[in-house]
Amino acid sequence: MAINPQAVVNIAVKAAEDKKAEGIVVLDIREISIIADYFVICSGRSGPHVQAVVENIQEKLAEKGVRALRREGFREGGWVLLDYGDVVIHVFQEAERQFYNLERLWGDAQVVAIPV
Fold first, then answer.
1. Which residue in 9, 34, 55, 108 is a FRET match for 82, CA 20 to 30 A apart?
2. The model scores a pTM over 0.85
Protein backbone atom coordinates (compact mmCIF):
# COMPACT_ATOMS: atom_id res chain seq x y z
CA MET A 1 0.00 0.00 0.00
CA ALA A 2 1.41 3.37 -1.01
CA ILE A 3 1.03 6.21 1.47
CA ASN A 4 1.76 9.87 0.92
CA PRO A 5 4.98 11.56 2.06
CA GLN A 6 3.21 13.44 4.86
CA ALA A 7 1.99 10.15 6.34
CA VAL A 8 5.52 8.72 6.12
CA VAL A 9 6.83 11.79 7.98
CA ASN A 10 4.16 11.54 10.68
CA ILE A 11 4.73 7.82 11.25
CA ALA A 12 8.50 8.34 11.38
CA VAL A 13 8.20 11.23 13.83
CA LYS A 14 5.88 9.26 16.13
CA ALA A 15 8.22 6.25 16.01
CA ALA A 16 11.20 8.49 16.85
CA GLU A 17 9.26 10.09 19.72
CA ASP A 18 8.34 6.64 21.04
CA LYS A 19 12.07 5.87 21.39
CA LYS A 20 12.81 9.25 22.99
CA ALA A 21 14.66 10.78 20.04
CA GLU A 22 15.69 14.36 20.70
CA GLY A 23 15.45 17.56 18.68
CA ILE A 24 13.06 16.27 16.04
CA VAL A 25 12.85 18.67 13.09
CA VAL A 26 10.99 18.29 9.79
CA LEU A 27 12.21 20.30 6.79
CA ASP A 28 10.07 20.80 3.70
CA ILE A 29 12.61 20.84 0.86
CA ARG A 30 10.16 20.61 -2.06
CA GLU A 31 10.81 24.18 -3.21
CA ILE A 32 14.60 23.94 -3.09
CA SER A 33 15.51 20.39 -4.10
CA ILE A 34 14.45 17.53 -6.30
CA ILE A 35 16.03 14.81 -4.14
CA ALA A 36 13.09 14.53 -1.73
CA ASP A 37 10.05 16.34 -0.35
CA TYR A 38 10.95 16.18 3.34
CA PHE A 39 13.89 15.63 5.66
CA VAL A 40 13.25 14.35 9.15
CA ILE A 41 16.20 15.08 11.43
CA CYS A 42 16.60 13.88 15.02
CA SER A 43 19.22 12.78 17.53
CA GLY A 44 19.95 9.90 19.85
CA ARG A 45 22.17 10.00 22.93
CA SER A 46 24.44 7.10 21.88
CA GLY A 47 25.07 4.66 19.04
CA PRO A 48 22.69 2.06 20.50
CA HIS A 49 20.04 4.75 21.06
CA VAL A 50 20.37 5.93 17.43
CA GLN A 51 20.03 2.31 16.28
CA ALA A 52 16.93 1.78 18.45
CA VAL A 53 15.31 4.91 16.98
CA VAL A 54 16.13 3.77 13.44
CA GLU A 55 14.83 0.25 14.02
CA ASN A 56 11.56 1.58 15.44
CA ILE A 57 11.07 3.94 12.50
CA GLN A 58 11.68 1.11 10.05
CA GLU A 59 9.37 -1.24 11.95
CA LYS A 60 6.47 1.22 12.16
CA LEU A 61 6.74 2.15 8.47
CA ALA A 62 7.05 -1.52 7.46
CA GLU A 63 3.77 -2.17 9.29
CA LYS A 64 2.21 0.22 6.75
CA GLY A 65 3.95 -1.52 3.86
CA VAL A 66 6.63 1.14 3.46
CA ARG A 67 10.23 -0.03 3.20
CA ALA A 68 13.40 2.04 3.02
CA LEU A 69 15.03 2.16 -0.40
CA ARG A 70 18.38 2.51 1.32
CA ARG A 71 19.84 2.55 4.83
CA GLU A 72 23.35 3.81 5.50
CA GLY A 73 25.46 4.21 8.63
CA PHE A 74 23.54 1.82 10.88
CA ARG A 75 26.52 -0.24 12.02
CA GLU A 76 28.48 2.83 13.11
CA GLY A 77 25.45 4.52 14.69
CA GLY A 78 26.79 8.07 14.40
CA TRP A 79 24.61 9.20 11.50
CA VAL A 80 22.04 6.85 10.03
CA LEU A 81 20.28 7.80 6.83
CA LEU A 82 16.99 6.16 5.83
CA ASP A 83 15.90 6.89 2.26
CA TYR A 84 12.18 6.48 1.67
CA GLY A 85 12.21 8.27 -1.68
CA ASP A 86 10.14 11.38 -1.00
CA VAL A 87 11.22 11.36 2.66
CA VAL A 88 14.80 11.10 3.89
CA ILE A 89 15.32 10.49 7.59
CA HIS A 90 18.56 11.43 9.36
CA VAL A 91 19.18 10.09 12.87
CA PHE A 92 22.37 11.43 14.44
CA GLN A 93 24.35 11.29 17.60
CA GLU A 94 24.48 14.88 18.80
CA ALA A 95 28.17 15.47 17.97
CA GLU A 96 27.63 14.38 14.36
CA ARG A 97 24.47 16.43 14.10
CA GLN A 98 26.29 19.55 15.22
CA PHE A 99 29.23 18.83 12.90
CA TYR A 100 27.15 18.29 9.75
CA ASN A 101 24.50 20.86 10.76
CA LEU A 102 21.94 19.92 8.12
CA GLU A 103 19.52 22.50 9.48
CA ARG A 104 21.99 25.24 8.52
CA LEU A 105 23.03 23.56 5.27
CA TRP A 106 19.36 23.38 4.25
CA GLY A 107 18.60 26.76 5.83
CA ASP A 108 16.37 27.80 2.92
CA ALA A 109 14.01 24.91 3.68
CA GLN A 110 10.80 25.55 5.56
CA VAL A 111 10.67 24.03 9.05
CA VAL A 112 7.21 22.50 9.29
CA ALA A 113 5.02 21.84 12.29
CA ILE A 114 4.55 18.27 13.41
CA PRO A 115 2.32 16.50 12.48
CA VAL A 116 2.72 17.47 8.83
1. 108
2. yes
Q: What is the pLDDT along the chain (116 residues), one digit of tens a residue?
A: 579 999 999 999 999 999 999 999 999 999 999 999 999 999 999 999 999 999 999 999 999 999 999 999 999 999 999 999 999 999 999 999 999 999 999 999 999 998 87
Structural domain containing residue 47: 5-112
For residue 107, the domain's CATH number is 3.30.460.10
Taking each helix axis from N to C end, the angle separating 47-63 and 5-18, rounded to the nearest 10 degrees, works out to: 140
In Å, what is the CA distance from 43 to each residue of 27, 34, 48, 100? 15, 25, 12, 12
**Count of the separate structural domains present in the chain:** 1
User: Is the distance from CB of 9 to CB of 40 less than 8 angstroms?
Assistant: yes
